[in-house]
Amino acid sequence: MGAEALPRNGDISPAAPPHPLILGLQPAALIDHVARVDCSLLDQVPGERGGSTTVAIQELQRILGKVKTHMLTSPDNASPMLTIAGGSVANTIRGLSANFGVSCGIIGAYGDDEEGRWFANNMGFSGVNISRLRRKKGSTGQCVCLVDALGNRTMRPCLSSAVKVQADELTKEDFKGSKWLVIRYGIFNIEVIQAAIQIAKQEGLYVSLDLASFEMIRNFRSRLVQLLESGDIDLCFANEDEAKELLRGEPNTDPEAPLEFLAKYCKWAVVTLGPNGCIAKHGKETVRVAAIGEAKATDATGAGDLFASGFLYGLVKGLSLEECCKIGTCSGGSVVRSLGGEVTPENRQWMYKQMQIKGLPVPDIRN
Prior knowledge:
alpha/beta; UDP-N-acetylmuramoyl-L-alanine:D-glutamate ligase; 9-stranded mixed sheet; 4-stranded mixed sheet; Carb_kinase_PfkB-like; Ribokinase-like; kinase activity
């Protein structure tokens, strides 16, 4: 799977509704460069494996330069490099629109460069309303996603010089008529996140929060706890590493402990456990759901983001907590079967088949 061709402006779907059901806030647009590489390259990359340590543009370019000599190939993936619109929120919103037919929009900014056009076109082509994306003079964020032979990914984003939407640029009109706001925790965007939450609550939206990464929680836990204690976060997603970091130093390290911690502040709390499925809590109900055993892991990029897509689809359809989790595992399992955070048409059909087997409602959209 090689780099995708840049869609023409005329290819962007004009039918996106003016008031999307679900909005995503991604202050800075991001382009992912996803590559399968051998482990020797990971030893040359600063920061911990598996995380999302930010890097300067010079370091990102250095890593990209080395990727060419460390690429892995496989019979079913002849071209091991993919360039695509990225970012956790963008992945979730695109998944909701393209895979589940949910009307979605995205709030943010992109630069007046090739990467910015690529981001806007990719999102628009997937049916996402991009009218809330601001085009600004400057550069668009980029991220190199290094995937090892086992499908584990190490991400190094470069956002230091990227244009982004500012808190004072958000308006009530951005949120009017929508029901959900999807955000990702990030200390560098905390002002715009807080401003978005405030307006969203004034407009009656639910707020879904992804915990971003274990490094973000480790370094900026206190601000996250303040955000949770505000009572404005209705739904929170954490993966197993983030959950452990949330309660670092506590004697109880079972996933249930951070789940209970999140559930104190959020109506819905979810901890994803990779190959062990997930656990979730809503009110007094707690469920544990197994992962999809048939999912072959090529690249873990976007697994949590697409799990969130499926879970949110279940919520807006009024399904039970267990059904929401099951759809989440089907959705998350579909994206790990190929490179990048976007589900391919083949894997989308695989997901629908898994949903049918489990007796879950398959979205009525044309693919």
